[in-house]
Amino acid sequence: MVEKTTCILIIDCESGFAETARLALSGNFRIVCAATADDGFKKVLGETPDIVVLGYLEPRGASRQFAVKLAEEKKTAHIPLLVVDVRPEDYPRKGWRWGDGFSHNIKGYVWRPLDAPDLKKTVEGVLQRARSGSMNLTEVAQQTEEMLKRIDQLKKLLMSEPDNKPTG
After folding, report:
1. Alpha-carbon dihedral sign for residues 128, 130, 134, 138
2. Which residues contact 139 (CB under 8 A, 6 or more apart)?
3. How many angstroms separate the CA atoms of 126 and 81, rounded?
4. pLDDT in tens, the chain (168 residues)
5. Contact call for residues 77 and 105 (beta carbons, < 8 A)
């Protein structure tokens, strides 16, 4: 169990997601919210959260730029980052680009929709791994399985779009 003094910063331009996440996590954690990358970074420096839950920010690429800045800044590079990306059907026009998360020290990556118990479980898992500094083999297997499911979802989505079908 994680202590109530654990601070989570939720950054997302969609107020509905930020409110849902705040409600899902507020009983167990101290929650701080921001709707822009600039406000989020000010709060990172002022609050020093134990984890940042980074959702979607406008314009496309703002979330990635935030992740880069967080990873490159000495005072913030240690803070684990959980990316909550857009729904798979929205991915082609506003989601993270393939490979972005692998190069920016992201500790967790999930897609919407994400219900409250799953978000809480994911946040607790990222915090636990960040505090222990490692993952056990079961956690590695679980994360690998989840990533393979996400890849399959993306493949199905991309293959279902008319522009991506081979012409003959």
Report:
1. positive
2. 125, 129
3. 8
4. 555 589 999 999 988 888 888 888 988 899 999 999 999 999 999 999 999 999 888 887 888 889 989 989 999 988 999 988 877 666 555 555 545 555 566 788 887 877 888 889 899 989 988 888 765 556 666 777 888 888 888 888 888 866 555 555
5. yes
Pick the CATH number of 7-134 from 1.10.101.10, 1.10.510.10, 3.40.50.2000, 3.40.50.2300: 3.40.50.2300
For 33, the enclosing helix (H) or strand (E) is strand 30-34
Which tokens in the block code for residue 21? 């996440």
Residues β-bridged to residue 31: 8
> Domain locations in the chain?
7-134
